[in-house]
Design brief:
The structure holds 2 protein chains of 2 kinds.
Chain A: E1 8-9, H1 13-18, E2 22-26, E3 29-34, H2 38-47, E4 50-53, E5 58-63, H3 67-74, E6 87-93, E7 99-109, E8 112-117, H4 122-131, E9 140-143, E10 148-154, H5 158-165, E11 177-179, E12 190-192, E13 201-207, H6 211-220, E14 224-226, H7 228-238, H8 275-284, E15 289-295, E16 307-310, E17 313-324, E18 329-336, E19 346-351, E20 354-360
Parallel strand pairs in A: 1-3, 4-14
Antiparallel strand pairs in A: 2-3, 4-10, 5-8, 5-9, 6-7, 7-8, 10-13, 11-12, 12-13, 15-18, 15-20, 16-17, 16-19, 17-18, 19-20
Helix pairs in contact in A: 2-7
Chain B: E1 8-9, E2 14-19, E3 22-27, H1 29-35, E4 38-42, E5 49-50, E6 55-61, E7 65-69, E8 74-79, H2 82-85, H3 89-92, E9 101-105, H4 109-112, H5 117-123
Antiparallel strand pairs in B: 1-2, 2-3, 3-9, 4-6, 5-8, 6-7, 8-9
Classes of the chains: A alpha+beta, B alpha+beta.
């Protein structure tokens, strides 16, 4: 999206500018990439707390007597596993098993669900969902993407911060969702104990008009504003895939190593979009696998689209890469032939014509030090 | 932003310091602030021929790799070895310990074509 007049704006934009953000275009949105610096923000989330504007992400509510059956056919993970107030990571696939989006679904009531989808593919996701809705009116689908401002509060101090600001909130357990404050109406404030950093933390969803006040109260509680730059290094250290880089319509979740988030090994999961393709692919063998790589020497930061070589022959390219701020090492992920997936396999990564030795490793790249 | 008065500047945010027939090259305070945390520097090789306006080095922040263009044509005579272990010198002392390479200029006329401190300050809006 090169036309700046078409950029979408977060309801928190004024707060970012006030915090000295460097703003960039991301997936059609005008968003903060950093404030104090990616390293500093990254370390704050690993050691204390940081907050990210995630208002670009989409919120969708699904409800009605047919909601569960329909969602089971739309999403890979078994929705029926969810008790009310619980959430799960899942994927939405096309018929060929390609990833349309990865998302979190929460069960908010007996027959109501709250879905959080990626910012860059909101329109596409909704189009796909609408075109697959049952005709009998048993499922209501509502796009609430423009009703919510959303902030991810992440880091080991998150719970302490949340409790200090919302003393009456019934703080959810990991992957759970709860009301943030007592609110009624179509846009209830919600808090989910989920995130994209590998740290404990929460994702807070509030009506658009309450967004800036929430940001400012977190700021006064000492939470560091963090941009998309550190969000990317934090998620990559955990090996969490990013749709558009590590996931796409061209690859299946099996190739991405996300088998456990698909229902194909769950005897209670029925038919879903993409299931046949996954089963066929598993039977026939995966053409490539998402493989974590670490530079074996100190070298340049790794980035996407760098060539990966085995014994001098190009075997793939990186889809995500970074200099891991926690490890001080170059890390990357690449789709490679399955024979090269074993940890310890020696490869090379080419950066500006120079080849650097790299080793296949295991995820997560960053393991929290045990106390 | 600091724009030392004794240097000349390229529009692409590099500076030169001329001492006898040796020219030192680095990036400006404005450039390092725009690039943010620099985590890697790849200077040219000693003996390399560089051309005015052509890529001579690369510096990388966590987020992006940026080409550094040689302000002058000539031959590289020395590179700052400190940068490989401590690339943050480019952020903390861009006009001093964060220098990138030294060279012999092959065309003195190129020097006078570079921006004066006043002109460079104007370019970066100061």
């Amino acid at each position: 999206m090169s036309d700046p007049t078409l950029l979408k704006h977060s309801p928190l934009e004024a707060a970012h500018i006030a915090c000295g953000a460097r703003m960039v275009e991301f997936g059609g949105w005008f968003m903060p990439v950093q404030y104090s610096g990616i390293m500093d923000e990254h370390k704050a989330v690993r050691s204390a707390s940081g907050m990210f504007d995630i208002s670009h992400m989409g919120e969708v509510t699904v409800s009605g007597p047919g909601a569960l059956v329909w969602l089971e056919s739309l999403l890979t993970n078994r929705v029926g596993k969810l008790a009310v107030t619980r959430g799960q990571y899942t994927l939405m696939l096309d018929e060929k098993g390609g990833v349309i989006d990865d998302l979190i679904i929460y069960r908010t009531g007996e027959t109501s669900y709250f879905l959080v989808i990626n910012g860059a593919c909101r329109d596409l996701d909704l189009e796909w969902m609408h075109s697959h809705l049952p005709a009998d009116g048993s499922v209501a689908l509502e796009d609430q993407g423009n009703d919510y401002a959303a902030i991810a509060l992440q880091g080991p101090d998150s719970e302490k911060v949340l409790r200090s600001l919302f003393p009456s909130c019934d703080v959810p357990k990991r992957n759970g969702i709860a009301p943030l404050v007592d609110s009624e109406g179509a846009v209830p404030s919600l808090v989910a104990r989920t995130g994209y950093t590998g740290e404990d933390g929460f994702e807070l969803f509030v009506p658009v008009k309450a967004g800036i006040a929430l940001w400012e109260s977190l700021l006064s509680a000492g939470v560091k504003p963090c941009g998309l730059g550190s969000r990317d290094t934090l998620r990559l250290e955990m090996g969490y895939p990013l749709n558009g880089s590590d996931l796409s319509r061209e690859r299946t979740p099996l190739q991405a190593g996300l088998d456990k988030f698909t229902g194909i090994d769950d005897p209670e999961k029925g038919e879903f979009s993409g299931r046949k393709a996954l089963e066929q692919q598993r039977a026939g063998g995966l053409p490539s696998r998402l493989t974590p790589l670490k530079l074996s020497v100190s070298g340049p930061p790794l980035r996407s689209h760098y060539s990966v070589l085995a014994e001098g022959i190009a075997v793939g390219e990186t889809c995500s890469g970074a200099l891991s701020p926690s490890l001080g090492e170059g890390i990357a992920m690449a789709y490679l032939p399955p024979a090269l997936h074993s940890p310890g396999t020696s490869l090379e990564i080419e950066v500006r014509g120079r080849r650097y030795p790299a080793t296949v490793t295991t995820l997560p790249f960053y393991k929290k030090p045990t106390l | 932003m600091n724009v030392p008065a004794d240097l000349r500047y390229a529009k692409t945010h590099e500076w030169i310091r001329v001492e006898g027939d040796t020219v030192t090259v680095g990036i400006t305070d404005h450039a390092q602030a725009e690039l943010t945390d620099i985590v890697y520097a790849e200077p040219p090789k000693v003996g390399a021929e560089v051309k005015a306006g052509a890529t001579a080095a690369v510096v990388e922040s966590v987020k992006a790799a940026s080409d550094i263009y040689s302000p002058l044509s000539g031959t590289v005579t020395e590179v700052n070895e400190e940068l490989s272990g401590n690339p943050a010198l480019l952020n903390t002392d861009p006009f001093g310990q964060g220098w990138i390479y030294r060279m012999k200029s092959s065309d003195a006329a190129e020097i006078s074509a570079l921006l004066t401190p006043e002109a460079y300050s104007a370019q970066i809006g100061q």
